[in-house]
Amino acid sequence: EVQLVESGGGLVQPGRSLRLSCAASGFTFDDYAMHWVRQAPGKGLEWVSGISWNSGSIGYADSVKGRFTISRDNAKNSLYLQMNSLRAEDTALYYCARRYYGSGSYYFDYWGQGTLVTVSS
Amino acid sequence: SSELTQDPAVSVALGQTVRITCQGDSLRSYYASWYQQKPGQAPVLVIYGKNNRPSGIPDRFSGSSSGNTASLTITGAQAEDEADYYCNSRDSSGNLVVFGGGTKLTVL
pLDDT tens for residues B41-64? Predict the structure, then answer.
């Protein structure tokens, strides 16, 4: 059974840093690209960042570029998101999601339950 | 602002058919995928590719695409289909990922 379990969220002051983790199990982790997607309270889904299976390709949303860094450790079946210079608008539930390519399309086939990040003084 | 545009809200009578649309220039080149999200739950993939359903998704869900518009159709909507629906694809550059703003579906 595929499982994605996020951790590391919490309450943090503006300008501070936080590191999120996503522990993956039930599949061959280094076969897949992995992404972070967030959802602010009462708002829609927002793609944050993605990383290819070998970390050779990385992308960021404009809203987090230069402040967030995505990484992975295939030996530990883990995905990370280092978040620096946090702002109030970064307050959201952060989901880890597996990216799959099939039938001519990319899509997110598995999602974690999310970890909540609250940026407030 | 999102490069994929969805109507914020749509309603459908129980048992009737509803179409939820997603517009964006990138959809001329890339398929959309669709996600259902119920309150307090993580999103669930319902449609991907040309018109593919993951295992466990009822066949009343279908997808289609024409030009810059992708559509999710629910034929015979059920009460349990009441949820938020999001489309997803690449952005116009093809390098990044983007979600539509979401459509809240109400089943009357």
Answer: 999 999 999 999 999 999 999 999
